[in-house]
Structure formats: C-alpha cells, structure tokens
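REVIEWER CHECKLIST
Item 1: Sequence provided? yes
Item 2: Single chain? yes
Item 3: Sequence as submitted:
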Amino acid sequence: MSKALKEIAIGEKALTVVQLDPWQRLAFVADLQKDFLAPLLKNAESSDLNALFTRDGNGGVDVLALISAFTSAIDGQRLEKWTRRILTDGMVIYTRPDGQRAKLSFGELNKFFSHPAHIVLLLKEAIVWNLADLNELVGTLVPKKAASVAEAS
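Item 4: Structure as written out by the authors:
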C-alpha cells in the first residue's frame, strides 16, 4: 500500500507531508492525544483543534490564541519530543538540490526555517494530515441517538 502524500509550502519551502501506515497512525494518534491534544484543548477557548490554526482576516494564524492554548499544554521538552518524532517517523520530506527526496531531520530545521511560527505550522500540517479520517472512526464509536418519528394525528 502506498502512503498518502500532501504537498505543502511553508514560507519559501516546498515540502511533502507523509501519512503514516495505519498502525503507526493509530499509535501516533493515541500518544498524541494523551500527551498533547487533551491538555491543549482543555486550555483552549475552543474545543476544535482546527479553529486554533485557522487563519485570521490578514492570512496569518492567530498567534496569541495559539500561545494561550500552548502555554498550559506544552513545554520545550514536549515540543522537541514531538518534533523529533514527526521528523524521525519520516512525516516530512523535501527535495534536495540533487533532486533526491529526503526526510527532513531535526538538525535541518534551522536551515529550512528562519521563523518559529513556520516550524509550528509544519508540525500542525504533519499532525492534521495524520489525523485525517480518524474523525470518522471516532464517530463510529460514539453511540448515536435513535431516530424518532412523530406520528401525525
């Protein structure tokens, strides 16, 4: 089975985000929700993760909302842990000057990005791409209310 790819541009850099194999995705999401998403959403004004990363009217991300949510949910050690995991798992690839594709490494982040927000956006893209379709799975696990039909008299 081939992996799903998504082409993205962050700043001046063109990158490809890779979706993990199903079992790796499941383990990734399980660890992510425990370590990151639950605390992040607990401290955010919105329970919608995508709302934290939506662009404001000027085309930028609401950095203050992100910082507010991140403050209680993540520290430097956790951020490094997840950045290394995303990059080590091969979720981000780029094309080298010689035309070969390569995994982006943790050590290359400063070569690729001059602004911390770009790194945050890269992490967001990799995470959201690997969360894709999992909403459907969660929806199947949540009991649905029985449909009721009112009788006409």
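Item 5: Key structural point noted by reviewer: The longest strand covers residues 5-10.
Item 6: Recommendation: ____
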